[in-house]
Design brief:
- This protein is an all-beta fold.
- Helices cover 0% and strands 43% of the residues.
- Strands 3-2-5-6-8 form a five-stranded mixed beta sheet, with no helix packed on it. Strands 4-1-7 form a three-stranded mixed beta sheet, with no helix packed on it.
Length: 107
C-alpha cells in the first residue's frame, strides 16, 4: 500500500532578526533546496541569490545546512563579522548522505 504525505516547512516566527548583520549570498543548484542556519529553517535557496537578495545573519560562527530530498545534504560552518558580505556557491549531488566542505573563501 502506498501512502502520500504532504510536508511543508514554515519560517519560525519566534526567531528575532539581529540589528547588526552579515550577508550570505547563495548560489546553489537546485534552487528549491531548503536552507538552515544553526539548525533553524531560513527559507529556500532561491530567496537568497541574485540581485538585491541575501540571507542576513548575526555575526559570529554560523552552521549553514542546505538540504533537499534525493540529494546529499551540504553542511559548512563560517565565521562572519559585522557588515561582511559572503558568497556560498555549491551544487548538491544526487544521492543520500551528507557532503561537507571546509570553510569557503570569504569576500
Amino acid at each position: 500500500m502506498k501512502q502520500s504525505i504532504r510536508v511543508a516547512l514554515e519560517k519560525d516566527l519566534r526567531v528575532q532578526f539581529p540589528t547588526v548583520t552579515a550577508e550570505i549570498k547563495l548560489s546553489v543548484t537546485p534552487e528549491r533546496a531548503a536552507v538552515f542556519v544553526d539548525g533553524v529553517f531560513a527559507g529556500h535557496v532561491a530567496e537568497f541569490g541574485g540581485v538585491g537578495r541575501a540571507l542576513l545573519v548575526a555575526p559570529g560562527r554560523r552552521k549553514i545546512t542546505i538540504s533537499l530530498t534525493g540529494y546529499q545534504t551540504f553542511e559548512t560552518e563560517v565565521t562572519l563579522v559585522a557588515n561582511q558580505k559572503f558568497k556560498l556557491q555549491t551544487e548538491l549531488n544526487k544521492g543520500g548522505g551528507v557532503a561537507t566542505t571546509p570553510i569557503p573563501d570569504q569576500e
